[in-house]
Amino acid sequence: MGRMRSALPFDVWRMLRFGAVGLLNTALGYSLILAGLALGLGDIVSNAAGYAAGLTLGFFLNRQWTFGRAGGFRPGAVARYAITFVVAYGANLSVVIAAMSAGLIENPFVHLAGNCLYSVIFYLGSARFVFVGRADAPAATNAKLPGVAT
């Protein structure tokens, strides 16, 4: 019987780059949260500023370095990135809420499990939904106007 292969690419180096970008955007986001708190901006504003900066840095580094899309900016990529974040973060919160419902309150392993699920979903969403296509793929041309990229 032949060996079955997954349709998903297994690229360890790309996964490591994604992880490195995650560490960088976490460091930036957390630093801004701490700075906001020190400036008296409060939890909500500080957290929002930290996440916004971290997600922005993550988008551009992942686009250029992790997934090799430096050759062009695809329409809708920012919206797809935002959707992917919301889905991944929602899954993270679902793990935490389910654990709380089961009586596991303030358990760091619950948050670790949620964060792992978040990371896997964000990676797969980025690889398969956000940064799709090849960076070196030629631009499509308009049939009515040859040579004009669409």
Quickly list its features:
single chain; 150 residues; disordered C terminus
Would you write up a description of this structure?
The protein has helices spanning about 10-40, 45-65, 75-100, 110-130. The chain contains four helices and no strands. The protein starts with 11 loop residues before the first helix and ends in a 20-residue tail after the last helix. It has about 150 residues and is mainly α. Mean pLDDT is about 85; it is low at about 135-150. Helix 1 runs antiparallel to helix 2 and helix 3 (about 75-100) packs antiparallel against helix 4 (about 110-130). The protein has a domain at about 20-65 and about 75-130.
How much helicity do the residues have?
55-70%
Strand content: under 5%
What is the averaged pLDDT score?
Answer: 84
Principal-axes shape call = globular
Radius of gyration, in Å, reads: 19 Å
Instruction: Give the total of beta strands.
Output: 0
- SS class: mainly alpha
Domain GtrA/DPMS transmembrane: 17-131
Subcellular location: Membrane
Organism: Mesorhizobium huakuii
Membrane topology: Multi-pass membrane protein
